[in-house]
Amino acid sequence: MKLLALVFAVLLVPAFAPMPAQAAGASVTVADMAFGPASVTVGLGQSVTWTFEDPVAHTSTSDQGFWDSGTKAGGATYARTFTSAGSFAYHCSIHTMMRGSVKVPVAVKGPKITWASAKTAGLTYDVQTKLGSGRWVTLKSGTATTTAKLTKQGKYLVRARTDKGSSRSGWSPPVAVSIS
Q1: Which of 58, 60, 93, 169 sits in a 20 to 30 Å window from 155, CA-based?
Q2: From residue 83, how far is each of 23, 54, 76, 96, 100 by CA, in Å?
Q3: How far lies 122's CA from each of 6, 32, 43, 100, 162, in Å?
């Protein structure tokens, strides 16, 4: 009987144990004159960490001027937290054939959509919705706000991009939102 109780207790413990924290963000290896993987997707507020394994110097430099890692080599790392939605193309400023992208979709919780996890001075946002198979319609343009609620019923796609002065990211991957 004691053995049966022990087996039962051992089987139950994992079900009630706290789940380990999941790694947030993505990792990109810079090796053999390439970014690997070349394209990653992260959530709002998550980071991308580049590890520069080559002995030859490289950079991770945003095409739109959102970041620049500076020159890195030999196992050095660079991390950037993505606090706003968009598609962010980047390259190595030393070896311009090396290219990559970071995609950050909007976050959805019920009718609330969030395109930036924090207000950042100098950044504004464009947000569009698409109802069913209709056309993309501007919800917000050049706004410093970071959230909105959809109030009309329907099945939407939502996307956003980040503006920094005269530079802007590409549109984020579309996210489906259903309002009933």
Answers
A1: 169
A2: 17, 29, 23, 26, 18
A3: 60, 36, 21, 24, 10
Amino acid code (one letter) for 55: P
pTM: 0.85
Q: Is 104 exposed, middle or buried (0-12, 13-18, 19+ CB in 10 A)?
A: buried
CA torsion, points 80, 98, 29, 60, in degrees to nearest 10?
-20
In this structure, which topology does domain 107-179 adopt according to CATH?
Answer: Immunoglobulin-like (2.60.40)
The SS3 of residue 13 is helix
Handedness of CA 80, 94, 58, 170 (dihedral sign): positive
User: Which homologous superfamily is 26-104 in?
Assistant: Cupredoxins -  blue copper proteins (2.60.40.420)
Q: List the alpha helices (DSSP H) in 27-163.
A: none
Chain segment 79-128, per-residue pLDDT in tens: 999 999 999 999 999 999 999 999 999 999 989 999 999 889 999 999 99
